[in-house]
Every structure is written in C-alpha cells, then in structure tokens.
Amino acid sequence: MSPREARAEAFVPAKGGLPAMASAVQACRGCGLHENATQAVFGQGSTRARVLLVGEQPGASEDVEGHPFVGPAGRTLDEAFREAGLRRDDVYLTNVVKHFKFVPAERGKRRIHQKPSVGEVRACTPWLTAELRLVKPELVVCLGATAAKALFGESFRVTRDRGVLLDFPAGFELGGRSPDSVLATVHPSSVLRSSDREAAYLDFRNDLRTAADALC
C-alpha cells in the first residue's frame, strides 16, 4: 500500500455507518483530487439495497449538487431503471472516486471530465470497500471500465464481458459476506456520447434488465 492509499484508508470511520462515512469523506485527503473539487460526493440509496451500482466519479453536476448521478448521465440511468424494472429508491448508487477530476475550463465554459489515474482509483477504493461491507448487496453493477477494473484489475475489458453475471472477485476482500455476483456494463455517459444513441441505450437497458432478472 502506498503512502497516499494509507492516508485515504485512515479517513474511513470505524463506526457510525454510512452517515458517518458521508460526513468523513469530506475531509479525505488521500489523493490530490480534493484540492479542486467543490466537495466529495458519497454514495446514496437504500442501506438494504440488493444491488449496488458503482460508476467512475462524480460529474460536473454531481460536484455542485453533492449527489451521485443527478446530471445528464443520471437521467439516462433513471430512464433505463424504469424500463428495466429497477427503482432508484431500491438500489445504492456510488462511484469509485469520490471527487470530480476535470480539466480547468476557461471562464464561462463547462469543466471537462478527466479520467482518474490508477493511483487515484486505488487511493479511493477504501471508501467503496466500506460501502460494500455496510450495504451487503447481492449484486454489484459496474458502470464503465474504471469501476470494473477497480474490482477485477486492469486486465478487465467491459467490451468482452459486459452484461454477463460474474463471480465477485475473491481478491477483493470485504471481511464478511461478499456479493453473489457482478455485472459490468457501460457508463450511461457513454450512451450519450454514442454516434448511435438509440442502439447504445437499448444495449445498456438490456444489461440492467439482466441485473434485475438476477434478483428475482
């Protein structure tokens, strides 16, 4: 474990559950992303959720509002939820990285998302580990490559294994009951960027239907 990872882990409270973690994450200095972000954005949702969805990081809207998946990608996710038979109130939504990483924008222009580094993902992983321990979901849905690689390692390819129920990785130690399975799909933001948005959306929705069917 690197010094930065050790410092990030030290900020995760041992008691108080998710409310204590949501408060403590605001003081996290485990990597440099806190320096430019408006705030940390912690996970939200049912503490008894059977499914936990994890994305890459908060976007510009999430950074300002302090809630996960409230921007355009979140609206796409909500639409897919409805059609797949899932409800936001019944799931737990979070991101691997809790601070928004972006390219500074010129005055009056939108901040541009920047992919977090492997080191930044690793530094933030103790927060995700703690969320998994507390929520105890049956199924984890990884939204995008960054989330999937945080669980399975850098060799994982969403293009190869998307929409398939996989065993929860044994190397990701939770110190208790682990989820039964993991399903990887694309991040909803990629649907919005697709040249064939309708087809990309249908594929994404069908992946979520596979997740919903797994809970039956």
UniProtKB/TrEMBL annotation:
<protein>
    <recommendedName>
        <fullName>Type-4 uracil-DNA glycosylase</fullName>
    </recommendedName>
</protein>
<dbReference type="GO" id="GO:0051539">
    <property type="term" value="F:4 iron, 4 sulfur cluster binding"/>
</dbReference>
<dbReference type="Pfam" id="PF03167">
    <property type="entry name" value="UDG"/>
</dbReference>
<dbReference type="GO" id="GO:0097506">
    <property type="term" value="F:deaminated base DNA N-glycosylase activity"/>
</dbReference>
<comment type="similarity">
    <text>Belongs to the uracil-DNA glycosylase (UDG) superfamily. Type 4 (UDGa) family.</text>
</comment>
<keyword id="KW-0411">Iron-sulfur</keyword>
<feature type="domain" description="Uracil-DNA glycosylase-like">
    <location>
        <begin position="42"/>
        <end position="209"/>
    </location>
</feature>
<dbReference type="GO" id="GO:0006281">
    <property type="term" value="P:DNA repair"/>
</dbReference>
<dbReference type="InterPro" id="IPR036895">
    <property type="entry name" value="Uracil-DNA_glycosylase-like_sf"/>
</dbReference>
<dbReference type="InterPro" id="IPR005273">
    <property type="entry name" value="Ura-DNA_glyco_family4"/>
</dbReference>
<keyword id="KW-0227">DNA damage</keyword>
<dbReference type="GO" id="GO:0046872">
    <property type="term" value="F:metal ion binding"/>
</dbReference>
<keyword id="KW-0408">Iron</keyword>
<keyword id="KW-0004">4Fe-4S</keyword>
<keyword id="KW-0234">DNA repair</keyword>
<dbReference type="InterPro" id="IPR005122">
    <property type="entry name" value="Uracil-DNA_glycosylase-like"/>
</dbReference>
<dbReference type="InterPro" id="IPR051536">
    <property type="entry name" value="UDG_Type-4/5"/>
</dbReference>
<keyword id="KW-0479">Metal-binding</keyword>
<keyword id="KW-0378">Hydrolase</keyword>
